[in-house]
TrEMBL record:
It holds the Pfam family Heme_oxygenase. The lineage of its organism: Bacteria, Pseudomonadati, Pseudomonadota, Gammaproteobacteria, Pseudomonadales. One of its GO terms (biological process) is heme oxidation. It comes from Pseudomonas hamedanensis. InterPro entries: Haem_Oase-like, Haem_Oase-like_multi-hlx. GO terms for molecular function: heme oxygenase (decyclizing) activity. This is Biliverdin-producing heme oxygenase.
Length: 201
C-alpha cells in the first residue's frame, strides 16, 4: 500500500512572509543573548524589561488601531500583561520602564496581520528559549518566565490556528505586500529598540 506524505498547505501570504522575514529573523536571533555565556539573572531582567517596552506599546497600538479584522480574537493573544507579571515576580517591574515609540504603522488590517505574524511566530522560538532559561537560570512559568511559555502545550495548535486564519483571509497582491512590509518593519523596529536598550550582543 502506498502511503502519501501528509501535505501541509502553506498559503501564499505565509510563503511571502517567510521569504520576506527569514533573514531578519536570523539576524535578530544571532544578536539576542538568550544563549550567551554572560546571561545572568540581571541581564535576563533587563532583556525582559526591554521586551515589555516593545510589546506593551505595540499591543496597545494594535488595540487602538481599529483595523483588526472583526473576526479575529486578539484578547487571548495579548502578552504584555504576562510579561509585566513576570517582571513583578522578578522584582524588575516599575512604572518608569521605557516604552518604544517607533513602532510599525498599523493603518490597515493587512498591516495588523503582519505585526501579528511576528508576535505569534515568536511564541515558537519561545519554546526553545523557555528550555534554555529553565536550565540556565532555573526560571519557569511559575517564577518569572511565563512569557516564554505563554501558550504552553497549546503553542503548536495556536500557531496553526493563526496560520489557518491568515490563509483564510482574502488578500490581493497589494495587501499581501502590505502584510510582509509590516512584518519586516516589526522585526526591524524590535531590533532597533532592543539595541537602544543595550540588551543585544
Ligand atoms: C534567540 C531567539 C529565537 C530563537 C532561538 C528562535 C527560534 C525559532 C524557531 C526554531 C522557529 C521555528 C519553529 C517551528 O517551526 O516550530 C521560529 C519561528 C519564528 N520566530 Fe523565532 N526565534 C527567536 C526569536 C524570535 C523573535 C524575537 C521573533 C520576533 C519578535 C521571532 C519570530 C518568529 C516568527 C515570526 C516565526 C515563524 C516563522 C514561520 O514559520 O513562518 N523569533 N523561531
Amino acid at each position: 500500500m502506498q502511503v502519501k506524505a501528509r501535505e501541509v498547505y502553506v498559503p501564499p501570504v505565509l510563503q511571502d512572509l517567510r521569504a520576506g522575514t527569514a533573514e531578519l529573523h536570523i539576524a535578530l536571533e544571532k544578536r539576542l543573548p538568550f544563549f550567551s555565556d554572560t546571561l545572568d539573572i540581571n541581564a535576563f531582567k533587563r532583556l525582559m524589561q526591554a521586551y515589555y517596552g516593545f510589546y506593551q506599546p505595540l499591543e496597545q497600538a494594535l488595540l487602538d488601531s481599529g483595523v483588526i479584522p472583526d473576526d479575529f480574537d486578539l484578547t487571548p493573544r495579548l502578552k504584555a500583561a504576562t510579561l509585566y507579571a513576570d517582571l513583578q515576580t522578578l522584582g524588575a517591574a516599575s512604572t518608569m520602564l521605557s516604552l518604544c515609540r517607533e513602532l510599525p504603522l498599523i493603518n490597515a488590517s493587512a498591516a495588523s496581520l503582519g505585526v501579528l505574524y511576528v508576535l505569534e511566530g515568536a511564541t515558537l522560538g519561545g519554546q526553545i528559549l523557555r528550555r534554555e532559561i529553565a536550565a540556565r537560570l532555573n526560571l519557569d512559568a511559575d517564577n518569572g518566565a511565563a512569557f516564554l511559555d505563554i501558550y504552553g502545550a497549546a503553542t503548536g495548535r495556536r500557531w496553526r490556528d493563526f496560520i489557518e486564519y491568515l490563509g483564510s483571509r482574502p488578500l490581493d497582491a497589494a495587501e499581501r505586500a502590505a502584510v510582509v512590509a509590516a512584518a519586516q518593519t516589526t522585526f526591524s523596529c524590535f531590533e532597533r529598540w532592543l539595541e537602544s536598550q543595550e540588551v543585544l550582543a
